[in-house]
C-alpha cells in the first residue's frame, strides 16, 4: 500500500465519482438490510492480568518519545498512557510494550462465543496479535481484548515453534480449526523487521493448541510478498484433506497449501495484478494511491464435478474473476506457464467498486463485498448473470463505516469490521471518538429487498453510480 498525494486519477473515474456523489450525498447512510454495531472501540486495550489464566502480563506503556525495543524504531509519542504503570509493572525484554495509537484491528471472525480480533504488528507497541472477546459479554464498548490462545503464544520472546508474530486475518473452518498466515514480520515504518519465516498456522479451537505450522518455502514467495488473508477449502468429511488459498497482494500471485501433502505451490496469472486505472482512493477525507493486487478470494458451494468456483479480485481493481479449484488443487495444472481458458474475467463491477475482503454465503450463492471506496457493504447473487445492474449496496455510512477491512460469513450470519485505516495511516485518529466497529447481521436480513435476494428486478441502491 503506497501513499501518493498526486492527482493522477483519470477524468473518467472522477466524473463517475461525481455522479455517484450527487446520487448519495443527500444522505450519508444508504441501507437495505440493517447491520448493527455489536462491538465498538475508541482505542484498543488488552486484558492485562496480574495472575491466573491470562498469563500474568502487564502493559509497559510507552509515550513521550520513549525508545522501543527494536533497533532503529521509535514510539509514536502518545501524550498520555491509558494508566500509570507501577514499579513492578515491567515486562521481560520489553516485548509487551504498548502504544495504543499503534494498535489497529484488521480482522474479525467468530467461533461459537468467541469473536476473534487480529491486530497485526504494523507498528511498534502491539502486545498481542491474535485476540478475542466474548460475544456473550454484556459490555459492548471498549471491551479489552484477550490474547488467544494465551499471552505466551503472542510474545516475541517465546519459543519460535509456539509463537505467533503478526496476523492480518483468520479463517475458521467446519472442522473447528483456525487458519492464519503468520507473516513473521514487525512492520516498523522504514525498518521492516523479519522475526521468523512466514508460515501457515492452524489452531485446534477445541483445545486451543497449535496443531500445524507450515513454513512457506522461498520458492512460493516474492521479496514483496504480503499474505493478509486466507480462505480454506474443506468439508466436514475431508478435514485431513483441506486446501488453503493465500492471495499475495504485493507479490501478485496466489499460494495454494495442501494440508494432506503438507506442501505449497504458487499460481501466477495476469489477473492477479493491480488494474492501473483503479488505484485511486478517497476514503475518510484521505486521497491516496494503492497498488494492491489480488486481495481476497471466495469459494462457491461444491459443484457437480466435485470442485468449487473461486471468485477473486484485486484491491486496486474493479473486475471480478473466477477459476475452478480443480485447477488450483492440482499442482501440475496450477503451476503451468500458460493457463489457456482456465481463468475467466466475469467483467467490470463499475467505478468506485474497489473491494477489500469478500465472502460467499454458500446456501444462497450471495457474494458479499467490502466496498472500501464507498464505505459500504455490497452484494451480488452468483445465481444471477454477472452485470453492473445486479450488484447492490446493502448499507453505506460515510461516518461509521469508513474502510470496511474484513468480512466473514459465519453460518447464516455476517460479520463486518470497519477501522478507519486511511485516517490511521495518513492523518491521525481521534481517540475520544469511536474508531473501530464490528457489525453483525443475518444474511437474510442483509439482502432483504435487494437484487441479491431473488431474481426479481430491483434497481435501487446499485453501487456503480
UniProtKB/TrEMBL annotation:
PANTHER family: PROTEIN YELLOW-RELATED, RH54244P. The keyword Heme does not apply. Keywords: Secreted, Signal. Its main location: secreted. Belongs to the major royal jelly protein family. The gene is LOC108566790. Residues 1-32 form the signal peptide. It is found in: Secreted. InterPro entries: 6-blade_b-propeller_TolB-like, MRJP/yellow-related. Coiled coil: none annotated. This is L-dopachrome tautomerase yellow-f2-like. Gene3D superfamilies: TolB, C-terminal domain.
Amino acid at each position: 500500500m503506497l501513499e501518493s498525494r498526486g492527482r493522477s486519477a483519470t477524468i473518467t473515474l472522477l466524473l463517475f465519482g461525481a455522479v455517484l456523489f450527487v446520487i448519495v450525498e443527500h444522505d450519508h447512510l444508504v441501507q437495505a438490510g440493517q447491520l448493527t454495531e455489536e462491538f465498538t472501540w475508541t482505542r484498543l486495550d488488552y486484558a492485562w492480568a496480574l495472575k491466573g489464566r491470562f498469563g500474568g502480563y502487564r502493559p509497559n506503556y510507552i509515550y513521550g518519545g520513549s525508545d522501543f525495543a527494536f533497533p532503529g524504531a521509535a514510539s509514536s509519542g502518545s501524550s498520555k498512557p491509558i494508566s500509570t504503570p507501577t514499579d513492578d509493572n515491567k515486562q521481560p525484554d520489553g516485548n509487551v510494550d504498548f502504544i495504543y495509537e499503534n494498535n489497529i484491528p484488521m480482522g474479525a471472525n467468530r467461533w461459537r462465543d468467541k469473536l476473534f480480533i487480529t491486530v497485526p504488528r504494523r507498528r511498534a507497541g502491539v502486545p498481542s496479535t491474535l485476540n478475542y472477546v466474548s460475544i456473550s459479554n454484556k459490555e459492548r464498548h471498549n471491551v479489552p481484548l484477550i490474547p488467544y490462545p494465551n499471552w505466551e503464544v503472542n510474545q516475541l520472546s517465546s519459543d519460535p515453534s509456539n509463537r505467533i508474530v503478526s496476523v492480518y486475518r483468520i479463517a475458521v473452518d467446519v472442522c473447528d480449526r483456525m487458519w492464519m498466515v503468520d507473516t513473521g514480520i514487525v512492520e516498523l515504518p522504514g525498518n521492516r523487521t523479519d522475526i521468523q519465516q512466514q508460515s501457515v498456522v492452524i489452531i485446534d479451537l477445541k483445545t486451543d493448541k497449535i496443531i500445524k505450522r507450515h513454513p512457506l518455502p522461498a520458492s512460493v514467495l516474492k521479496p514483496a510478498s504480503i499474505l493478509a488473508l486466507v480462505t480454506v477449502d474443506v468439508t466436514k468429511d475431508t478435514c485431513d484433506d483441506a486446501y488453503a488459498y493465500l492471495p499475495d497482494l504485493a507479490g501478485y500471485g496466489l499460494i495454494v497449501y495442501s494440508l494432506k501433502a503438507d506442501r505449497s505451490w504458487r499460481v501466477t496469472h495476469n489477473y492477479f495484478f493491480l488494474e492501473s486505472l483503479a488505484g485511486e482512493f478517497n476514503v475518510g477525507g484521505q486521497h491516496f494511491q494503492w497498488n494492491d493486487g489480488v486481495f481476497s478470494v471466495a469459494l462457491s458451494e461444491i459443484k457437480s464435478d466435485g470442485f468449487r468456483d473461486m471468485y477473486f479480485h484485486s484491491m486496486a481493481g474493479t473486475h471480478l474473476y473466477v477459476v475452478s479449484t480443480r485447477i488450483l488443487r492440482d499442482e501440475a495444472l496450477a503451476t503451468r506457464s500458460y493457463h489457456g481458458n482456465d481463468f475467466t474475467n466475469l467483467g467490470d463491477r463499475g467505478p468506485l467498486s474497489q473491494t477489500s475482503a469478500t465472502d460467499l454465503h454458500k446456501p444462497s450463492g450471495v457474494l458479499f463485498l467490502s466496498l472500501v471506496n464507498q464505505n459500504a457493504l455490497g452484494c451480488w447473487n452468483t445465481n444471477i448473470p454477472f452485470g453492473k445492474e445486479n450488484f447492490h449496496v446493502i448499507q453505506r455510512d460515510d461516518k461509521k463505516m469508513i474502510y470496511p477491512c474484513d468480512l466473514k460469513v459465519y453460518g447464516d450470519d455476517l460479520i463486518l469490521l470497519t477501522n478507519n485505516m486511511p485516517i490511521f495511516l495518513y492523518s491521525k485518529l481521534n481517540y475520544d471518538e469511536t474508531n473501530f466497529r464490528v457489525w453483525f447481521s443475518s444474511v437474510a436480513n442483509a439482502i432483504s429487498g435487494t437484487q441479491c435476494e431473488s431474481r426479481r428486478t430491483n434497481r435501487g441502491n446499485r453501487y456503480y453510480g
